[in-house]
Amino acid sequence: MIESNITDAFILKCENISEEILNLPLYKIEKLKTAPFFLIIKSITEDFMKLMIYPIKKQKIVKINISGQNLSAAIEEISKILHDFQVIHTSGFIKIKEHYYYECYLNLSLNDERIMNLKTSLNKIKNVFKEIKIEEIGLKT
Asked: Considering the entire predicted model, what is its pTM?
């Protein structure tokens, strides 16, 4: 089991977010005209909170968590695998104590036919990692 999430996320309908609460000029984001949902990603540490908001068209997307002790050998392989998928957001590689963690969100759902390609590709490099986890992030009700 992956011990630490770098981020947490959920999806909201665009109509459920208030510009007044966020005090952000959302109207400047061009993709809002065609994207009915927001992917909200939160990263919280003891020193700060970072909030990322991405307009998206899907109600469900995939999050990949990877952890291990020696990721340097796998960085190129992960890049090759993810090249075939639309990455919405990535944490990059983060070192916490002796473990490395990596997260990314893909414009892909578990029902997408390409998910098997992703799983097959990740299984090929599974021996490098302590754990690889794929989860679906869905619409918050």
From this structure: 0.80
